[in-house]
Structures are given as structure tokens and as C-alpha cells.
Specification:
Layout (H helix, E strand, L loop, with lengths): L4 H6 L6 E3 L2 E3 L6 E6 L4 E7 L3 H19 L3 H17 L1 H12 L3 H22 L7 E2 L6 E9 L2 E5 L5 H14 L3 E5 L6 H8 L1 H4 L6 E3 L4 H10 L3 E7 L2 H11 L5 E5 L4 E5 L5 H13 L9 E7 L3 H13 L19 H16 L3 E4 L20 E4 L6 H4 L6 E7 L2 H9 L3 E2 L1 E5 L3 H10 L4 E4 L14 E2 L2 E2 L4 H7 L1 E9 L3
Parallel strand pairs: 7-8, 7-10, 8-9, 10-11, 12-13, 12-18, 13-16, 15-16, 18-19
Antiparallel strand pairs: 1-2, 3-4, 5-6, 6-22, 11-21, 14-15, 17-20
Helix pairs in contact: 2-9, 3-5, 4-5, 5-6, 11-12
Length: 495
């Protein structure tokens, strides 16, 4: 399979689907433009795939499944390890591609996205070798019950645009390790790194049909994956409204679902926090990747006695954030992912102003950092105060470099404000009182609670949200359990 990613990075290129081990365009011959966020320019195209392409991928997966599902854990692990090694060898190319395709600073792609993608492949290569089944023996020892965890079959993995390769591998690695065949759809907005990975599947030893990539729109290719009767499970990361649609579509077919959805994450800053660390980390948790991480803090809740000091320190730091060309290694904030998303963010800010919010810094589109980026999609990092918890911007996900500040009197009010949301993905808690930290973490309605830190991940731990932030858990053995079906087998100990 000849690689074309280098050409893609250098100029106009048409990406291709990977179906049954072959790179190919869509059956309908249609294409979608791929736009560089930093410049606003079209620099490639992807197949506008539909149900016909998904059907071809399903047929290829069905043909491959009997052999792949019976391959040893060791064989599957070795394939994933080879894949991870290839990613490591091409890390520089992937970093450049991810930055160009997404608009994020190249330094962020280098430090986070590509290393974590590689780690995902390595981790699940090891995890499947330690994925043990349970056995149960009653007191009278008359029977033995054991659990046989079987691959589901064909599964759909639909990943988002904000962390393209990182979250793409987060889904496909456990699915493939568990013995399934995958129909994957990366975001049509950031398709390049998934395409590059698909080019190396054969080199890694992944048999044809085990891993299939279908590019296209969510409403077309994504919908076809979700509703195909032979696809038995769907792992999706994205917006809550789309997650609700997937749940509604799949309900009559009783598919397994893992839905990692939106967030409106609180950062709770108590007056006894380590001040400098709380300010510095909140800066990062609010504005990393232009605020386009589902785990980013967006509601900053500060105890009243500390409010003014914390506000002033945070605003000062935000004003110093350097917005620049994502390709520049010194850039701290790049472009948001698309013009439509930029316009949505600016509309959210406008709505907050109209609701009586005070803009402490930012509040508008950012000037282009250079001539190359004159048509790019840049937004100023923005802090807003003076709005109550029921205001729209404190209730709805913005998914951009926009945060609000609210004060609270005591622990009880902090928890009340933190939980005043339909979402429940992540929270950060800042205090040097360990007992208070544990109480607050237990009371906050979230799938993740970070105490005096942020974005520290152990791949063995369960990941996911509560309420409108999702259903199910990914990570570690939770992911392997999702991508398998348990069967109870019972046999007598005596003839």
C-alpha cells in the first residue's frame, strides 16, 4: 500500500477510505473539502461516503471476523505494538498533520496528541493479555461457573475532531485487541491523521477487513454505521444532541452503546488552595487546545474571600496568552477548528453580553497573527463574570476559549453551583484540606474529579460522564468489557 500522506501535507490531496485492506474513494465519486483552520484555505479532499461504502466495509469486516476473532491474544497484541512503533517512527509527520488539520499549536500536538495516540495502541496491546475471565465455585463444589468474554463482531467507532488521532486510537485499539472488526469514522473536519494511520495497518500486520475507515459526514456515513443491522456496538464521542440521536436510532436494535458526550465542567477554587498552582492550572484547564477539550474547565467557581485576587491574577495571565500560527513552535493558542465553530463561539459571547455579562478580557475574534493566517479562525481567550448559574452560557457547552467566573460562600454552595448543570463529565477541586477535597469530590456529579491537578490520566481507570455527559465507560478493562459479550458457562464437577 503506497503512502501518500507526505504529498497531503505539502499540497492538495484526495484522501481515501480503507475498506477490506484497499484504499479507495467513495462509490458515488463525491468529495468533501478539507479546510486548514489557520488559513481558511482548502488544502485537500475526503470521500463523501454513504451507506454503500459502509456496506462494503461491513462485508469486508464480516469476512475477516471469523479468523481475527480466533487469533491469539499474543498475535493481536503484536499487531498493535507494531502499529504503535510505526506511529512513533512517523511522529513528526503526524504532529505536523494534526496541527495543520485541527488548528492546534504544533507544540500541543507534539506533547499530547501523538504521544497519547501511540500510548493507546501500546496500552491495549498489553491490557488484552491480562484481561482475565471470572470463575465461580459454590460452597458444595458441585459446579463451576466461568465467564467467557467473546468479541462482539463488527463494531462502529465514531471519533471527534478536537483530539483526532488520540481519541481515534482510544476507540479502535481496545476494539481490535478484543477480537472485533472495526468500521471507523473519523471527523470529516479533521481526517488526515486517521487516514495516515490507515495507510500503516497492513504494515502493522492488521489483516484486511479487520480495520476499515469510512470518511464522510455524520449525517450520511455516520448514520449508516449507526443503523446498520450487522454493526452490534457503537462507541461515539461528540456532542450530546448527536449522542441522543444515536441512542434513539439504535434503541430498537438493542445495540451496545458507549457515548462520551458534552461537558460544562466546574473548577472549584476554595480559599485555602495553593494559589499559584490553582491559577496556573486553571489557565491551562480553561484554554488548552483553544478550550476545545471536553474536559476543559468552563465554569470557574471561586470562594468569595479569594474571588477578586484570583480573578485579577487569572485575567492578567490570560491577557498574556500568545495567539499565533499553529505551525510556530512558540504559539500557545491556535485557531478554532472551523469558521462555523468560530461563529458559534462568538454568538455565545454576544449572548452573554446581552444577558448582562461583563467581559473581563477577550470577547471577540482575534487578529490574524501573520499574513499566512489572515483568513484563519481565531478567537480571543475570553473571561466573563456577572452572570447567574441559570444563564445560557453557564448551562450550554461552548467548546471554545470562553469561561465564566462565579463566586460562592461555602462548601455547600460550591457543590450546589457545580451540580447545577445537565452535564456531569469532569470537575477540578482546589483545596489543601484533604477531607474537604474528598467530601467535595464525592458530592460533585461528575465522572471524573481532579483534586489539585487536571488532565492527569491513567489508562487503567474508567472514563466517562454522568447525566447528559454520556453513557458507559471507556478505558482499561472497562473498554475491553464493552467490546466483548460475556457468556456464563456452567458445568458439573462430577460426571
Amino acid at each position: 500500500m503506497q503512502s501518500t500522506h507526505s504529498n497531503y501535507l505539502g499540497g492538495m490531496e484526495q484522501l481515501q477510505n480503507l475498506i477490506g485492506g484497499q484504499l479507495q474513494g467513495s462509490k458515488n465519486g463525491k468529495w468533501l473539502d478539507n479546510i486548514e483552520p489557520a488559513t481558511g484555505a482548502v488544502y485537500g479532499q475526503i470521500p463523501r461516503s454513504d451507506a454503500d461504502d459502509v456496506e462494503l466495509a461491513v462485508q469486508a469486516a464480516a469476512k475477516a471476523f471469523p479468523q481475527w476473532s480466533t487469533r491469539s491474544f499474543e498475535d493481536r497484541s503484536e499487531c498493535l505494538r507494531r502499529w504503535a512503533k510505526i506511529v512513533s517512527q512517523h511522529a513528526d509527520e503526524l504532529v505536523r498533520a494534526e496541527s495543520k488539520d485541527n488548528g492546534k499549536p504544533i507544540s500541543l500536538a507534539e506533547a499530547v496528541d501523538i504521544p497519547r495516540a501511540q500510548k493507546n495502541l501500546e496500552f491495549f496491546a498489553g491490557a488484552i493479555e491480562h484481561f482475565a475471565s471470572e470463575a465461580h465455585i459454590p460452597a458444595d463444589s458441585s459446579h463451576i461457573h466461568y465467564t467467557h468474554r467473546k468479541p462482539i463482531g463488527i463494531v462502529g467507532c465514531i471519533s471527534p475532531w478536537n483530539l483526532p488521532l488520540y481519541l481515534f486510537t482510544w476507540k479502535i485499539a481496545p476494539a481490535i485487541a478484543a477480537g472485533n472488526c472495526v468500521i471507523a469514522k473519523p471527523s470529516e473536519i479533521t481526517p488526515v491523521s486517521a487516514f495516515m494511520l490507515s495507510q500503516w495497518a497492513e504494515e502493522a500486520g492488521i489483516p484486511a477487513g479487520v480495520f476499515n475507515v469510512v470518511h464522510g459526514l455524520g449525517s450520511e456515513a455516520g448514520q449508516a454505521i449507526v443503523q446498520h443491522p450487522q454493526i452490534k456496538a457503537i462507541s461515539f464521542t461528540g456532542g450530546t444532541s448527536t449522542g441522543a440521536h444515536i441512542a434513539q436510532t439504535t434503541a430498537p436494535h438493542f445495540k451496545k452503546l458507549s457515548l462520551e458526550l458534552g461537558g460544562k465542567n466546574p473548577a472549584i477554587i476554595f480559599e485555602d488552595c495553593d494559589f499559584d498552582k490553582a491559577v496556573g492550572t486553571t489557565l491551562r484547564s480553561s484554554f488548552a487546545n483553544q478550550g476545545q477539550i471536553c474536559l476543559c474547565s468552563s465554569r470557574i467557581l471561586v470562594q468569595d474571600k479569594l474571588y477578586d485576587r484570583f480573578k485579577n491574577a487569572l485575567v492578567e495571565k490570560v491577557k498574556r496568552i500568545r495567539i499565533g500560527d499553529p505551525a510556530d513552535a512558540t504559539t500557545k493558542m491556535g485557531a478554532v477548528v472551523s469558521q462555523a465553530h468560530r461563529d458559534k463561539i462568538l454568538s455565545n459571547i454576544k449572548g452573554a453580553k446581552e444577558a448582562g455579562g461583563t467581559i473581563l478580557c477577550g470577547g471577540d475574534a482575534a487578529e490574524a497573527p501573520n499574513e499566512r493566517c489572515r483568513n484563519g479562525f481565531f478567537v480571543q481567550p475570553t473571561i466573563i463574570e456577572g452572570l447567574g448559574p441559570k444563564c445560557e452560557i453557564n448551562q450550554e457547552e461552548v467548546f471554545g476559549p470562553v469561561i465564566t467566573l462565579q463566586s460562592f460562600r461555602d462548601e455547600e454552595e460550591a457543590i450546589q453551583l457545580a451540580n447545577d448543570s445537565q452535564y456531569g463529565l469532569a470537575a477540578t477541586i482546589w483545596t489543601q484540606d484533604i477531607a474537604k477535597a474528598h467530601r467535595t469530590a464525592a458530592a460533585v456529579e461528575s465522572g471524573i474529579a481532579w483534586i489539585n491537578c487536571w488532565l492527569v490520566r491513567d489508562l487503567r481507570t474508567p472514563f466517562g460522564g454522568v447525566k447528559s455527559s454520556g453513557v458507559g465507560r471507556e478505558g482499561g478493562f472497562e473498554a475491553l468489557r464493552f467490546f466483548t459479550e460475556p457468556q456464563n458457562v456452567c458445568l458439573p464437577t462430577q460426571a
